[in-house]
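Researcher: Let's try something more involved. This one mixes different molecule types, so please make sure each is placed in the same coordinate frame as the others.
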Amino acid sequence: MTPPSSHPAHTEQPLILMEAVEKWYGSFQALKSVNLSVSKGEKIVLCGPSGSGKSTLIRCINHLEVYQKGRIVVDGISVADNPKAIDIVRQEVGMVFQGFNLFPHMTVLQNCMLAPIRVRGTGKAEAEATARQYLDRVHIGNQADKFPAQLSGGQQQRVAIARALCMQPKVMLFDEPTSALDPEMVKEVLDTMIGLAQDGMTMICVTHEMGFARQVADRVIFMAEGEILEEAAPDTFFRSPSHPRAKQFLGEILAHH
Amino acid sequence: MGYELDFSVVWEHLPELLWGCLGTLGLALSGMTLAMIIGVLGVFARGSNMAWLRRLVIAFIEVIRNTPFLVQIFFLYFALPSMGLKLNPTVTAIIALGLNGGAYAIEIIRGGVQSIHKGQVEAGLALGLHKTQVFRLIVLKPAIRAIYPSLTGQFIMLTLTSSICTSVAAYELTSVAQRIESDTFRSFEVYFTVTLMYLAISWMLMTAFAAISRQYFSYPTR
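Model: All components are placed in one shared frame. Result:
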């Protein structure tokens, strides 16, 4: 097999490949023939007006949403070919939610150890060591024995990031990770994400934080009404968006900055 | 008014009455355990994607909640033997209490499960946990915490309902009391004492439930 030679940087198979993915909620079409290819190490920022399908798109990748047409391949695994592969895909794909979704009845440390022990079968001591390592990395190691409700929103979201990292995923999905935070806590979460990006993690982030997009994104993808309308490097996208919907959207959100 | 109170009867029969209390506690605790198992499995089955299983659980709840407990226990004790299934009184009582309490527990626990934010389930699934693991490890404890007062209230009801098991001659406080009363004709003294004993049993259980709550459900929430 000779790979196409035009893009030497992308000759490897993409880490995530979405082909003609379509999704309906009843008669409402949430995704319209979405095609997306993400290489290892790439950082993608997904933006667009609310209801444009950004969250739906990333939630299809780890099958929190079912889609009706097309296929999604994650690290060479396609769930369409093998329904049991959902479990494997989810182990390789970390996700951070808008609402943190930490488990309230477990300490920070237990939140981070649960999946490695129960899903990967990691030993307790090793799971704890890994958890402490990632908690230190998101600068929250000293809170390991607290319960989620005892932490601020920003701290909770950093724990959520550490919890996802403990599964040592190949890609991280962020679904508006700073939207539910008080303004003064946004930075600490973004700094954590920037650190992660600098370490080479493959990331797809649904966010309206355009500063973050400028700083870390390899590509910005703009969606509206379930379609990808524009894909560009952040400089190009912010300086001269080509699609009128993208221009309008940028005008609206940048007006406040 | 020729009736003179004479609690010496109670005093003489105190050991039997205390054994009766133990019998009641035994029935109640076994019944609760069975009810809890039925409750948790029932909630899980009620949320299954197999329609026949969901319908079976709903039918079970409907039958139990809309028929008298006395008829249920008579059915188990007197009707089943004609189908070839003969159970002893204690086993019958435990099964009857467990089934009855279980039907109510399913509905109560289900309410708790529904109060859990769906983000909790999604976070579990996204980490690679199976649906059953998500239910067992993530949903169940906060769900039970949410409805703990209703659930323990139902379990106190179950304990008091165990007095009806006297009708199949299960060994418990009320049946002991009936026997002493018919031997001595000291109705007031016996039932007055038994009333206090039921109160004591209920208080003990409530104290135990509160201790369990402090032990397992005391994590902080917002």
